[in-house]
Design brief:
One of its GO terms (molecular function) is L-threonylcarbamoyladenylate synthase. With 206 residues, the chain is of the alpha/beta class. It contains six helices and ten strands. The N and C termini lie far apart (46 Å).
Length: 206
């Protein structure tokens, strides 16, 4: 059964955040809130976590996992960003965007797109997520909590606990955080390509 933690969305309890971070370091798969919708997350190098996310979401090896980062200093360790793209991304973050970029050697090979050698990265604008990332000290390997054959992600922590009780280890609930996934923008081919229109406003890129 999954452990269930309910935290305040603007002032999350420090002890709870510490407990969740320790669980992640110990190999736990966590359902947690973001500024777009709930996500599944695990430690960066957790092969078991990757396999479990693939199983829950029924994903193939072409799926872009996302490294959810606390800030640009962290993000820059894992992707290659030229100056123009850096300025464009910096102007849009933190926020509900995922950017696909060429990965550095710091990214475990099993996370990479098999042909492009790319990975998704983002910096969320959500108090609870930021608190968890600060406590963890490294990115969370993540994927939207969108179940197979369902059109919208799960939005309620209690429902996530009820439906995924035996396949995740921790549910971190800070209330409803919406149903719209991030806007996904691919910069890996040299030109901006909108892969998915989502919660992030695209007008700044047009």
């Amino acid at each position: 059964m999954a452990k269930y933690f309910d935290v305040h969305p603007e002032n999350p309890q420090r002890r709870t955040i510490t407990n969740v971070a320790e669980s992640i370091r110990s190999g736990a798969l966590v359902a947690y809130p973001t500024d777009s919708c709930y996500a599944l997350g695990c430690q960066l190098g957790s092969r078991d976590g990757i396999d479990r996310i693939r199983s829950i979401r029924n994903l193939d090896d072409r799926h872009h996992f996302t490294l959810v980062c606390q800030n640009f200093a962290q993000l820059g360790q894992f992707v290659q960003v030229d100056n123009d793209v850096f300025r464009t991304i910096k102007a849009a973050t933190p926020g509900s965007y995922t950017f696909i970029l060429p990965a550095t050697k710091e990214v475990p090979r099993q996370l990479l797109h098999p042909k492009k050698k790319t990975v998704g990265v983002r910096i969320p604008d959500h108090t609870v997520t930021q608190a968890l990332l600060a406590e963890l000290g490294e990115p969370l390997l993540s994927s939207t909590l969108l179940l197979p054959d369902e059109e919208e992600p799960l939005t309620q922590g209690w429902e996530i606990k009820e439906r995924l009780d035996h396949v995740v280890d921790v549910v971190l609930d800070s209330g409803d955080c919406g149903t719209e996934p991030t806007t996904v923008i691919d910069f890996s081919g040299g030109e901006l390509e909108v892969v998915r229109r989502g919660a992030g406003d695209l007008t700044r890129f047009e």
